[in-house]
TrEMBL record:
<protein>
    <submittedName>
        <fullName>Uncharacterized protein</fullName>
    </submittedName>
</protein>
C-alpha cells in the first residue's frame, strides 16, 4: 500500500523523486523520462512508460498482459500491487480524467 499519494495539478510540472529529488519526468529534456534508483514505475492511464524489475515482480499480471487488455485499468493495477512504504505521485496529463502515475520507494 502507498504510505503517501501526492497530487500534481499541472501537466507541465516536472516530477521529482521525493527521496533523492532527481527529476524523473523533466519536460526540458529531449529524453524527458529519466528514472532514478527509487523509481518503481512511470505509467499513464494508457499504459506503462517504465517499470522496474522489483515492481514488476510483485505485479499479478505482466505489463504486456495489461497492455494487451483493452479493458485494463492501469491505476487499479498499480493499486493492487503490495509494495511497502511506496509513494505514489499522480499528475494530470492535460486531458480530462487522464493521469500519469509515478511510484517511488527506497
Amino acid at each position: 500500500m502507498y504510505q503517501q499519494i501526492i497530487e500534481i495539478h499541472s501537466a507541465e510540472e516536472n516530477i521529482r523523486c521525493p527521496i533523492c529529488q532527481h527529476a524523473v519526468v523533466d519536460w526540458t529534456e529531449e529524453q524527458y523520462i529519466q528514472p532514478c534508483e527509487h523509481t518503481l514505475f512511470i505509467a499513464m492511464d494508457l499504459g506503462f512508460e517504465f517499470v522496474s524489475d522489483r515492481f514488476e515482480e510483485k505485479m499479478s499480471r505482466s505489463v504486456d498482459q495489461i497492455h494487451d487488455d483493452e479493458a485494463a485499468n492501469v491505476f487499479q493495477e498499480i493499486l493492487n500491487v503490495e509494495f511497502n512504504d511506496a509513494i505514489l505521485v499522480r499528475s494530470e496529463l492535460g486531458i480530462e480524467n487522464m493521469y500519469r502515475y509515478t511510484g517511488f520507494a527506497a
